[in-house]
Structures are given as C-alpha cells and as structure tokens.
Amino acid sequence: MNSRLAFVFIISTLTIDAMGIGLIIPVMPDLLQEISGGDLGNAAIWGGLLASTFAVMQFLFGPTLGSLSDHFGRRPVLLVSLLVMAVDFIVMGLAHSIWLLVATRIIGGVAAATQSTAAAFISDISTPKNRSANFGILGASFGVGFVLGPLMGGLLGEYGFRIPFFAAAGLATCNLILGYFVLPETVTNKIRRPFDIKRSNPLGALKQIQKISGMARFLIVFFLFKFAFFVYPAVWVYYAKAQFNWDPGMIGISLASFGFSVAVVEGILIRYILYWLGERRTVVIGFLFNIFIFILLGFITSGFWALLLTPISALGSIVTPAIRGIISSKAKPNQQGEVHGIIASTESLAIIFAPMVLTYIFYASTRSNGAFYLPGIPFLFAAIIISFTLTIFITRSKGSIGMPQNTR
Question: How far is it, in rounded angstroms, from Cα 220 to Cα 350?
C-alpha cells in the first residue's frame, strides 16, 4: 500500500507540475495587462519572456536537482521543491510588479525542475523489465495536466484572474502533505554519491555522462525527437486557425483530446507495446509513425479528418519512455539522478529552441507576400527532422546504437 501511495505521489507531483503551468495560461493575459499597464500585444511579449525564463531555469537546474537527489535523497528534494512551488504560486497571485513575476518564474523554474528527481525515483523502484513502461508515467502525467490545467484555470478564472494561482498553490500543498507521509527514501548508502558542484550543471553533467558508451548519441536522438514533437504545442493553435479556420473552442477540444490520448498511450498502452516490441523496435516504429502523421498534417485540408487524426497522433509519444528506458539502463544506480537531470535539461533545451524555429517557419509559409501559402510546413519540417533522427538511431556505431532487437 505504501509503495502504491508513493507512486501516486510521484504521478500527482508530475501532474501538478504540468497543471501548474496550464492552470495559469488562461488568466496570464489579464494579469500581465493589469501589472504592465499595456495592451494585449505587450502582455504577449512579457508572457513569452516569462515562459522562456521558466524553461531556461529548468534547463540549467535539472542536473543540479538530480545530483542533489543522488546525494541527499529523492524525498527531501521533492518535498522541498513542492514547498517552494506552493509559495511561488502564492507570490504570483499577489504580485503587482512585472519584475516580481519574472523573479517567481526564475524560482518556479528551478523548483519545477524536479522531473529528473521523479524519474530517478521511478528508476530506483523499477526493474529492468518494467523501467521503460514506468517512465510512461512521466508522459501520462503531462497529458493529464495538459488537459486539466487550462480547463480548471479557465473555470476558476471566471471568479477572478488571480484565483488559479492560489488553486495551484493549494494543489502543491496538498501533494506536499501526502508526500510527507507516504514517500519513502530510495537512495541508500550503497548508491549514495557525493555531491560535486562541477558535475551538477548541464555542461558538467554532460561531460560525465559522455564517458558512458553511446550516451551522447542517445541524447542527440532524444533532443532531435523532442524538438520535432514540440511542433504540436508550438504551432498547433496557429496552424488550426489558418488551415481549418477553427475557433478557440474547437482548438481547445483538439488540444484536450491530444493531451488525454498522450496520457492513455504513455500511461497504459506503452506497457503492452514495449512487451511485444521491446524498447528499440518501439523507438523505430514510433519514429516511422511520426513521420507518416507529420506528412499527413503537412498537406491535410479537412478539419474533420484533422480532428479525428489528433488523438491518433498521440501514439507517436511512445518514443519518449522507450528512449528514457534505454538511457537509464546504461547508467549506474548512483547516477540515475544525474542522468535524468541531463535528460530533463536536454528536453528543456529543445523546448527553448523549437518554438522559435517552428513558429518562424509557420510565419514564412503563411505571410501574405510570401511565395506560397502552406500552413503545414512546420509539420513537414518536423518529419524531416524525425527522418534524420531515425537514421542516427539505426546506424550501427561501435558500442552504441545498432539495429533494434526485441528485448522482451
């Protein structure tokens, strides 16, 4: 029972991380307009700055929290981070200064970089056979948070645009209390690793991890996949409006269906997929599936078929837990926090750059004076990236990645 409750705590922590971001999205324009005193365009600029600041902090501090958890344990890092997040949301809800909001996003980005610690905890309690399947919980939790966060934020925002911040703080506090009573410590003296400041940052951690045979190549594969797969949150809203003339309600439905489907795929289906295919074949088939879906989205003109295709496209997310499992299996038990820290930083790096590149491609392919008009080009570009990534993955390299084998 305690083991199950601890797992529930990890799931809820990751879900709250995603919800904490999504919960405040619907009300951020109002809050930023009130604080900055500008128009909606000005609020959008500040919103972009806050989002980038948050992502940069996660990139910088993912390995730090992971390394801290390798030394002090998963329990204190997760509980302290939840406490900081709760306070951070309260301060955001009370903020009347734009620079205070920037400060909260800096602190919140550091506190929310706990995905590496949560992933290390999952690795600690998993066996080699079920490790990748358990990593599906990471994506499933994001999917649930991606659906519930904006929905709750929009509903609560009707009662005041500062209310969602206090609701997010309440969720973090409730989860902190649950974790205090049910979360065990999985770092024992046998696997405890001394904290080294030189390897607790992205560059230092990467330098250490590169010593593991084939690790650098897997991280490149992971970065490129995350970059390409981020085409959904980066351009979907603009693409759907330009290509199908969807209103916000229809766009919201499509995003909710995608998030819910990701949760089902990574939380439930991935266990059966990995059992039948193994990790490596799952990655290859996932890449091929994404290439096919991206090409379809690049040229499709029917909003009806696009809406039907949206939940099906979530099957492409099977790649993430499979790659995580492969990377985790290459690391020693006392490196799990560090390894998942650099994985989290790699993902954050993709999230930092992908929106800038993909939205510019969308702009270039839809501007009124352009040579052509094709809103789906970002998806075609993503298909090219995935094709290149697949080539890297299946190319045999000494001590590294070879052709996939069934690992049942």
Answer: 11
Q: With contact defined as beta carbons under 8 Å apart, do 205 and 344 qualify?
A: no
Q: Which amino acid is located at 358 in the chain?
A: L
Contacts for 178 with CB less than 8 Å, ≥ 6 apart: 5, 8, 9, 12
Rounded Cα gap, residues 266 and 89, in angstroms: 28
Domains by residue range for the chain, with CATH:
2-184+201-394 (1.20.1250.20)
Which is higher by pLDDT, 96 or 389? 389
Residue of 403, 375, 373 whose CA lies nearest to 390: 403
Asked if residues 35 and 96 have their Cβ atoms less than 8 Å apart, the reply is: yes
Sign of the dihedral defined by the CA atoms of residues 88, 89, 90, 92, in that order: positive
Predicted confidence (pLDDT) per residue in 185-210, tens digit: 888 887 788 877 776 666 766 666 66
∠ Cα 347 351 353 (to 5°): 120
Q: pLDDT per residue over 88-100, tens digit each?
A: 999 988 988 889 9
Q: CA quadruple 238, 226, 71, 79: dihedral positive or negative? A: positive
Other C-beta atoms within 10 Å of 7: how many?
A: 17
Cα dist from 248 to 51, 64, 157, 320, whole Å: 21, 39, 16, 29
Average pLDDT, the chain: 82
Cα(146)–Cα(10) distance, integer angstroms: 17
Which pair of structure tokens corresponds to residue 309?
Answer: 């295709």
**Residue with tokens 């299996």, as numbered in its chain:** 329
Residues 6+ apart with CB under 8 A from 142: 14, 15, 18, 259, 262, 263
